[in-house]
Specification:
The protein has a domain at 32-143. The protein is 51% helix and 0% strand. It is built from seven helices and no strands.
Length: 206
């Protein structure tokens, strides 16, 4: 039962229920709204580690216009288009597919049924968790492998990837909780107004 009495406060079950629903919804929204960015940023970071001298714009173009579709849309693999490969020098272009394909396969094997989109995840947002967990494990391994202070001068200047939480920690302080007249009169019964004689509903169309 959500009917609770504490410090003289009674009958706030509806507000509490609305708060729980809001928090649960924030979990669903977190996965639906962020999974694309998390996956794309992962591939951009891994590519930048492998090819530090390649311009970031070329890597982003490759991820958003090829890797994204390979991981989240296409069931069958496809090769990198020639116009994309033309943005890289010959040494990088010749090794891109052999470097990317295993990473794409790792991610794809952890996906629910393709294609994956915000709409398809709306009814089952937790289905994307295996892919996000895989990325987080990769990031944690990179953090653990960071060089000691003595070796930092010789280490790559690439900043370690930012860790993220698989389960967001929403605070009720910045959430809007449903508080309507019924909820308020349950908490403050003395504030309830008596219905007046000949009282009629307000016509909002006037």
């Amino acid at each position: 039962s959500l009917f609770v009495e504490e410090n003289g406060l009674k009958n706030y079950g509806q507000s509490l229920s609305a708060a729980c629903k809001t928090v649960a919804t924030s979990y669903n929204n977190y996965y639906i709204e962020n999974f694309e960015n998390i996956i794309c940023n992962y591939f951009i970071y891994i590519l930048k580690r492998k090819y530090p001298n390649v311009r970031i714009g070329c890597l982003k173009n490759l991820v958003y216009n090829h890797v994204y579709d390979e991981v989240l849309v296409r069931c069958e693999p496809s090769s990198i288009p020639d116009e994309m490969l033309g943005r890289f020098d010959s040494d990088v272009a010749s090794s891109l597919s052999s470097f990317l394909n295993p990473l794409i396969l790792e991610m794809k094997s952890r996906m629910p049924m393709l294609p994956v989109s915000k709409v398809s995840l709306n009814n089952g947002p937790f289905k994307i968790l295996p892919a996000l967990r895989h990325i987080l494990e990769k990031y944690e391994n990179l953090h653990m492998a960071q060089p000691s202070p003595i070796d930092k001068d010789n280490a790559s200047k690439l900043v370690p990837p930012r860790l993220f939480s698989l389960f967001p920690n929403p605070g009720l302080g910045w959430r809007f909780i449903k508080v309507d007249a019924q909820n308020l009169t349950g908490i403050f019964p003395e504030a309830k107004q008596e219905k007046q004689i000949n009282e009629s509903p307000f016509d909002h169309n006037q």
